[in-house]
UniProtKB/TrEMBL annotation:
Keyword Ion transport appears in the UniProt entry: no
Source organism (scientific name): Gossypium hirsutum (Upland cotton)
Classification via InterPro entries: ARPC1, WD40/YVTN_repeat-like_dom_sf, WD40_repeat_dom_sf, WD40_rpt
Gene: LOC107914491
Localization per Swiss-Prot or TrEMBL: Cytoplasm, Cytoskeleton
Protein name (record): Actin-related protein 2/3 complex subunit
Length: 361
């Protein structure tokens, strides 16, 4: 299955992204290259190697409409790759960073992308036709530490960030000449670029992966203290709740529907969280469990049926002596899951996702 294929490409993958038709996947095998594989006759074959960065590639995103790849690296640079015939041609991005670029995401309209960095800044980049390069406007002096993740609201204006200062923030990224006023948020006030909409101080430790729900009504992010946070009504008076769990911390999250989230991280096993009819979020189950917990919620069987086919059982059995205490037998992954991406099968309502794993040596 495609959901497992990325895990099999290389021993160590720092990040990955899928082509619009999901026939190709781009990932970094923990070096300064971007490898692109294509599914040919039910077999994955390497078709391109993108070489421009000098240091490890820390972020990749593949636009779904314009078919462009953006990559960022610890070398403080970013490139937008355009397909021209059989080759991928890089376009320079002016980031003006003095620290590593850590993460990147295209906006929903794909006329901008955001780059989080170790310089405590976020670069919002857009294309300048006359100079044939991508320039950036920088959100400065808002973060107290490295920006670990960025996520775009469906309105193409609001941008959520997480940082190792333990906070999650939401900013306006309206750029005159790039965005239209019809897409701006709020009728009485027009937030300017870089204006902070809200700062969430829910985590007492590093904050990681942040995502918006499909409607943009709910924001979810995770902390290094083994907690996941859900926030509604983003604004002056947000409604927040947290879910604590007794397992290792998460690194990334993904909304597979408005009321269901998949969390992945150091426990090497995707976790399902869901909201009930009253909007109360709770942990449901691990996807890698062989058997359903008898003490779990009744609704767990529904999630098991919906997601049970996403992962195959481990090919090689492990003795009890070799299984880490925190890892559940039957899980597909052997190490920390650092990235998760949604896969929507074309013409079908079935939802799938892919994961990539980083090996610590």
């Amino acid at each position: 299955m495609a959901a497992v294929a990325v895990h099999q490409f290389a021993q160590c993958i720092t990040c990955h992204a899928w082509s619009p038709d999901h026939s190709m996947v781009a990932f970094c095998p923990n070096n300064n290259e971007v490898h692109i594989y294509k599914l040919v006759n039910d077999k994955w074959e390497k078709v391109h190697v993108l070489q421009k960065h000098d240091q490890i590639v820390s972020g990749i995103d593949w636009s779904g409409k314009s078919n462009r790849i953006v990559s960022v690296s610890h070398d403080r640079n970013s490139y937008v790759w355009n397909r021209e015939g059989p080759e991928w041609v890089p376009t320079l991005v002016i980031l003006r960073l003095n620290r590593a670029a850590l993460c990147v995401r295209w906006s929903p309209k794909e006329n901008k992308f955001a780059v989080g960095s170790g310089a405590k800044t976020v670069c919002v980049c857009y294309y300048e036709q006359e100079n044939n390069w991508w320039v950036s406007k920088v959100i400065r002096k808002k973060h107290d530490s490295s920006v670990t993740s960025v996520a775009w609201h469906p309105n193409n204006i609001l941008l959520a960030t997480t940082s190792t200062d333990g906070k999650c923030r939401v900013f306006s990224t309206f750029i005159k000449g790039v965005d239209t006023r019809e897409s701006k948020t709020g009728s009485s006030s027009d937030p300017k670029f870089g204006e902070q909409i809200v700062q969430l101080d829910l985590s007492s430790s590093w904050a990681f992966g942040v995502k918006w729900s499909p409607s943009g009504n709910t924001l979810a992010y995770v902390g290094h203290n083994s907690m996941i946070y859900f926030v509604d009504d983003i604004g002056p008076s947000p409604l927040a709740q947290n879910v604590a769990f007794r397992n290792l911390p998460l690194r990334d999250v993904l909304f597979v529907s408005e009321k269901m989230v998949i969390g992945v991280g150091f426990d090497c096993n995707p976790m399902v969280f869901a909201a009930d009819k009253s909007g109360l979020w709770s942990f449901i189950r691990f996807l890698g469990e062989r058997k359903e917990s008898l003490s779990g919620p009744k609704s767990g069987s529904q999630f098991s049926e919906a997601f049970g086919k996403l992962y195959a059982q481990a090919k090689h059995g492990l003795s009890n002596d070799t299984v880490e205490p925190s890892k559940i037998q039957g899980a597909v992954h052997d190490n920390c899951i650092n990235c998760i991406a949604l896969l929507n099968k074309k013409g079908s309502q079935t939802k799938r996702f892919s994961t990539s794993v980083f090996l610590f040596r």
